[in-house]
Design goal:
alpha+beta; two-stranded antiparallel ribbon; 7 strands; single chain; 164 residues
Length: 164
């Protein structure tokens, strides 16, 4: 996922109460209160995978560089409201376009915001990321599958980009 799209992963992490609590304790300098529970370690590792936290010698710390780069990229993107971006306010999708070609382009844009070619996401993980963009995550998932922008496993447990 590009630096420009990191905000989706960060926002999805912030929607998760356990991850939000873990991040809050680290930012407040109280990371030691997390203890060594499996859930706490899992939440910290998810933040590390996103890149927002770094496991340093003296404990978990905020990756200020990633935060600054993400904010800069989001700010630059907000000034460009032509093409498909006219359907968005900030990072939120206002409405799906009526024209099929515009709708396809919007869905490609959304897919590229929430998923990388190497990732395989469970439905709940994909939903977390899509919820940052639009409240009707089922509609977005369905359109991405219908437009062949993501593939769903036969058992419906995972989503990934199609293999070319």
């Amino acid at each position: 996922m590009s630096q420009h799209n990191k905000w989706v992963e960060i926002a999805a992490g912030l929607k998760n109460p356990n991850m939000r609590k873990a991040l809050g304790l680290v930012l407040a300098g109280e990371g030691a209160k997390l203890g060594s529970s499996t859930q706490s370690l899992k939440d910290l590792r998810r933040w590390a995978k996103i890149g927002l936290l770094v496991d340093a010698d003296q404990g978990w710390t905020l990756n200020e560089e990633l935060l600054n780069d993400t904010l800069e990229a989001a700010s630059a993107a907000n000034t460009q409201r032509t093409g498909i971006l006219r359907f968005f306010t900030g990072t939120r999708l206002n409405a799906l376009p009526a024209r099929p070609t515009d709708r396809h382009e919007v869905m490609v844009h959304i897919r590229d915001q929430v998923l990388t070619a190497q990732e395989s996401l469970r439905e709940d993980q994909l939903n977390e990321r899509l919820a940052v963009i639009h409240e009707d995550v089922a509609l977005l998932r369905r359109y991405m599958v219908d437009h062949n922008l993501v593939q769903r496993d036969a058992d419906g447990t995972a989503y990934r980009m199609p293999v070319s």
